[in-house]
Amino acid sequence: MTVTIITCIGLLCSIALAVASILRGRATQAPVSAGAIVWGAIFMLMQAFVAVWSGIGLVQDDALSAVIANVVLTACAGLSFNRYALKQRLETRQEDGTGFGVSHPFAVTVVLLLIATALTVLALEIPSNHNLTWMYPLCLLLEYFLVGGVLAGVFFLFQRRGAAAAVVTFALFFIGLAEYFVILFKSMPISPGDLSALSTAAAVAGSGYTYMLSAYCLYGIAFAALAMLLLQAAGRLRPARAQRTRRGLVINLLVGLALIGGVAGHATLIDYYHTLGIQIYTWRPLESYYRQGFLPTFISGAQTINPPKPDGYDVDEAEDLLEEYAAAYDSAEAGNEDRAAAEAQFGEEKPTVIAIMNETFSDLSIYQMLHADYTGPEYFKSMSDCLARGSLFVSAYGGGTANTEFEFLTGNSMANLGSGVYPYTIYNLADVGNLAQQFKDLGYDTLAMHPNHATNWNRENVYEDFGFDKFLAIEDFAGAEWLRNIVTDRATYDEILEQLETNSSPQFIFDVTMQNHSGYTTNLIPQDKQLNLSIDGMSDAEVNEYVSLIQESDRALAEFIGKLRQLDRKVVVVFFGDHQPYFPSRFNDLWFTDEDEAVHQERLWQTDYIIWANYDVAGNSQTSEVDNLSVNFLGSQLMEVIGAPLSTYQKALLSLREALPAINTTGFQDSTMRWYLSNQSEADGNTSLQAAIDARNDYATMQYYELFYDGKSIYTKRKQSAANETDPNLDPGTTKIM
């Protein structure tokens, strides 16, 4: 309420200044120009936005930031309405050499651009990065020159008009604001790969998120406004129309192109990672952005979207490496009677295989039971007759669902592709081996389902490329049970049961659930479904909503498994979470101190999995033997334990696990189960670590071969909303991929 009152007072002052300026202009026969009115109105609109946003309770109640922002915005509006008088004063100072200490308007323009650049950098960084003293000085300087180059380039390209450059300033401030919200909702920064998934981001943007502006956002508005005011002033110093010459216009154009071209060349021709040492620490990506600045780090990430080809990569050698690892697996399993029995059983029975990737399903009791005696999903943890179970190490945190399913379905690791990359939206996956195509080749019907938009993460095209016969999306769940305005896990399980009842053929069903998607401040959990924890004596609404959702997921899983136990057909279920929610990092840093950094970080990048069957699988005791692994190995592990035929690549991956039990973008394990961060490249005589590093390098080579072969067709050419067509022979609402 305080911010609203202050902003309304500020807005009234701006309006009063506008009226006074207009009346004074009429009285002096010097009316306020249309341009001045537009500029002043822009600052008033910024004030009006803050007033409305705070009025609905979406601005932090901080009086100091509100006063500063409104003083700045009111001053900017007032000076804009009186910019003719301002220009006259500046010209007077230039003539007598006072004030700026220079007599040439171009020198004043340069000074104004330099100051505006600094303010624009602050507008970009401050909303999310509150302590710029933590930034590396050279990175801050680099960001200053990147912003300054673009700002000045646009300024001169548009013939020294301040409006064009001001648009750049506002755009950068808006990016800074977006960065703030992405960090707030995901505890992750904006990455270059996010640009390839804007439709997905837009689809979930309103799903339970509260867009609360912080005090630092108001400071960012103030910095942006000041920068825009100075750019306006710089634009007023250009020569009058009658004084402009063709030579001057050409010079401005060339200077603008040179500046923008210089920035573009710097960002594309210089290797930010190897030459400048700017990199994204995958285990602490936020720290990378905070210490190196948004633009340098973003550019470095963008440069890595082109997948790095392993040193000395050769197609023939990659094929030989695959064969060597696969042969090692065959040799090790040659006398394994349990595996032989499972293979024979699978070939005869052809069980249906159901893979459930449960949205944000994780056991937060690993964080010292949340200091609230929280024990996690009870039924899930109590299942004692699984074929295998354990911790699942993933390459996503707080978001990035599609990367977990990519790793599961293909057996490839994001560790070999880098942070901020989304293969579904970036790469050509048409010929990439995957579980759906593998089961299809075995005579299975293949079905994917996701109770949200088919365009999310480009799934409509990827699932077609992967060989799924059908894809059921949000329109196919009309009338289904909802929770928080999202289709429940239970509704997707009911659809699976219906598929089993109506289709007696062996099936591979891949269910990507939606129920537990962030954010967790909707307050839409019914009273009888709420779980209320007292964390160190305090209630946290966000945590309570999340654990309540996990409790509902657990109940739905119990019902589903109970029905499968009674089903008169053989079914295998692999169930796993895609990533943790975005908030446990604060518990991790607060409650786990003075521990190994790799262990500390991996706690955030893990979920859990089970592989379960409703029949006795030959060669398996089904006593829930624990096997902790990373999700890129889960598909191969599934195929092995149920006796399904293995591809050459899957055999190679299973053989690889002897030296490299788990790997994700954060780190990797050696054979002693010790974790190392992903930047570990020297073994220093540690034989198990050296074996893991060698295996990691071999994995990178084999994966590059599996994904890109010779690197000539890396990027996707498929557009979203192009794959799905309605087949009149199917039931209404069923989507078939043609």
Question: Mind explaining what this structure looks like?
Answer:
- This protein is of the alpha/beta class and 738 residues long.
- The chain has 3 domains: 1-81; 104-269, no CATH class; 315-733, Alkaline Phosphatase, subunit A.
- The chain has an 8-stranded mixed sheet, sandwiched between helices. Strands 5-6 form a two-stranded antiparallel ribbon.
- The longest helix has 26 residues, at 2-27.
- It starts with a helix and ends with a strand.
- The radius of gyration is 30 Å and the shape is globular.
- It has helices at 2-27, 34-55, 63-81, 83-96, 105-125, 137-157, 162-186, 198-204, 215-236, 246-269, 285-292, 294-303, 315-333, 337-349, 378-382, 401-410, 423-426, 435-441, 459-466, 489-502, 541-566, 584-591, 597-602, 631-641, 648-656, 687-708; strands spanning 352-358, 388-393, 445-449, 470-472, 482-483, 486-487, 507-512, 571-577, 606-613, 629-630, 667-669, 675-677, 724-725, 736-737.
Total number of domains: 3
The structure class reads alpha/beta
The CATH fourth-level homologous superfamily of the largest domain: Alkaline Phosphatase, subunit A
Distance between the termini: 55 Å
Major β-sheet strand ordering: 4-3-7-1-8-9-2-10
Largest sheet descriptor: 8 strands, mixed
Amount of beta strand: 5-15%
